[in-house]
């Protein structure tokens, strides 16, 4: 519902004082929301660099600023060595890192991560956690992290809620 993929059944989804559920397309800035869905949605023929450039353009980041933002996130996640690699040639962990990078590109104010560390190796998970911690400390933001790993939630989050069969348990 927050990402707009599912219709809101009750209440509102407010994103920067705009009801995202009731908004016309374009009313909510594309740069306001970063999303890393559970499934990796990548174009198989595009390279890592091309994915980052396309997402920067969609988010409305100026070309000069995009180059800096892409370099920053690529360095933080160690993606620069894969810049010329097509998505279809990435390992599952590398594809996941790219999807995570796309979700934080441009410093969105709201970020949604659904199992972002699945398939990542330990080093990739550490890099991802460091990026999350840095992003969340630097500005006023909101993030929702869905994970099966309690230790990941505790390491990353200020507040943790546990859902069991759709019911809030803790």
UniProtKB/TrEMBL annotation:
Domain ABC transporter residues, every copy: 1-117
Any one Gene Ontology molecular-function term assigned to this protein's record: lipid transporter activity
Pfam family, one: ABC_tran
Entry's Gene Ontology cellular component terms: membrane
Alphabetical list of InterPro entries matching this protein: ABC_transporter-like_ATP-bd, ABCA, P-loop_NTPase
Name this protein carries in UniProt: ABC8B protein
Organism phylogeny: Eukaryota, Metazoa, Chordata, Craniata, Vertebrata
């Amino acid at each position: 519902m927050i990402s707009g993929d599912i219709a809101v059944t009750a209440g509102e989804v407010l994103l920067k004082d705009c009801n995202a559920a009731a908004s016309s397309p374009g009313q909510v800035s594309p740069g306001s929301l970063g999303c890393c869905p559970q499934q990796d949605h990548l174009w198989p023929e595009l390279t890592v660099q091309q994915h980052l450039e396309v997402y920067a353009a969609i988010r409305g980041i100026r070309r000069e600023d995009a180059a800096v933002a892409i370099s920053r996130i690529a360095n933080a996640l160690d993606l620069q060595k894969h810049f010329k690699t097509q998505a279809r040639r990435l390992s599952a962990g590398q594809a996941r890192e790219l999807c995570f990078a796309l979700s934080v590109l441009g410093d969105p104010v709201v970020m949604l991560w659904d199992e972002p560390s699945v398939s990542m190796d330990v080093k990739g998970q550490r890099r991802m956690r460091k990026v999350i911690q840095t992003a969340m400390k630097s500005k006023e933001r909101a993030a929702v992290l869905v994970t099966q790993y309690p230790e990941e939630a505790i390491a990353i989050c200020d507040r943790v809620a546990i859902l069991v069969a759709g019911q809030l348990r803790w």
